[in-house]
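So, can you check?
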Amino acid sequence: MNATFASTAFGLLLGLSSSCFAAAPVAQGVIRFTGSIVESHCTTSAASTGLSLRQCPQGSRGTAIDVARVGAVASVSASDHSAVKVKLLADSGSQGRYYNQHYAFVDQAGNAVTSGTYLITLNVP
């Protein structure tokens, strides 16, 4: 009886010890995140003095700005069809979470454009 008891105990001990040292199965699957990271947008103002962008998040740095004249064309002279560009006048720098920039509207000759009706498009990355 001792031999039967000892062999049963030994077999049970080996059976339990091997299951205790077994490696845990690695969980597999896919984790999906949905939603978006929301950052406040820039405060903009446009006047004859130019375009101002205030409190813009640093992530929007590198904004592409396009200016196009809108409204009826009064004449076909070159001054009405000349391209208007923006020229950066002031930048608060890249230090900090937000930045400010001020642009002037200039024609191809570099002269300030202070009147007219224009569509300003900001493309933010």
About this structure: DSSP finds two helices and six strands in the chain. The two ends are 82 Å apart (CA to CA).
